[in-house]
Amino acid sequence: MLLPLDPYVDALDIDIENIYSAAYDLGVVDGKLYMVCDSYNSITFIVNMDKLRASRLELPMKDWTWDEFKTEYAPNLTLVEDGRFTQLAMRTYINTAPIYCVYGRLGWTMVQSF
């Protein structure tokens, strides 16, 4: 059996106003808080617009697929010189951030949100 955490949030005077709502809402069932995340993950895809333009490619649309990346983008953005990769089509970055993190304080700007 799980007990709701709401009474503890109130009793300990915990300010939940600045908690990332999507992370907080994961622990809410039928309007009651049962779980609190200590972090959340996001997958980020960063595009080098100069490389994209040089390859005569457009910025992908919201409905872009993995197959389109593999067939249209990857072959045009990957460079191999003397048997060595000198430019890769992608680099993955998985961000785990505390739920209190405010991206604006880090100087980041969201260009396009999918």
Description:
This protein has 114 residues and is of the alpha+beta class. The protein has 2 domains: 6-39, no CATH class; 42-95, no CATH class. 25% of the residues lie in helices and 20% in strands. Strands 1-2 form a two-stranded antiparallel ribbon. β4 (79-81) and β5 form a beta hairpin. The chain is elongated, with a radius of gyration of 21 Å. The protein starts with 5 loop residues before the first helix and ends in a 16-residue tail after the last strand. 0% of the residues are buried. The model is unreliable at 99-108 (pLDDT under 50).
Order of helices and strands: HHEEEHHEEE
> Which term fits the overall shape?
elongated
Overall residue-averaged pLDDT value: 76
Helical stretch tally = 4
The unreliable regions are: 99-108
Strand order of the largest sheet: 1-2
Q: How many domain units? A: 2
Based on helices, strands and strand pairing, what is the structural class? Answer: alpha+beta
Count the beta strands: 6
Q: How large is the radius of gyration? A: 21 Å
State the end-to-end CA separation.
38 Å
Strand content of the residues, in percent?
15-25%
Q: Level of helix content?
A: 25-40%
Largest sheet geometry:
2 strands, antiparallel
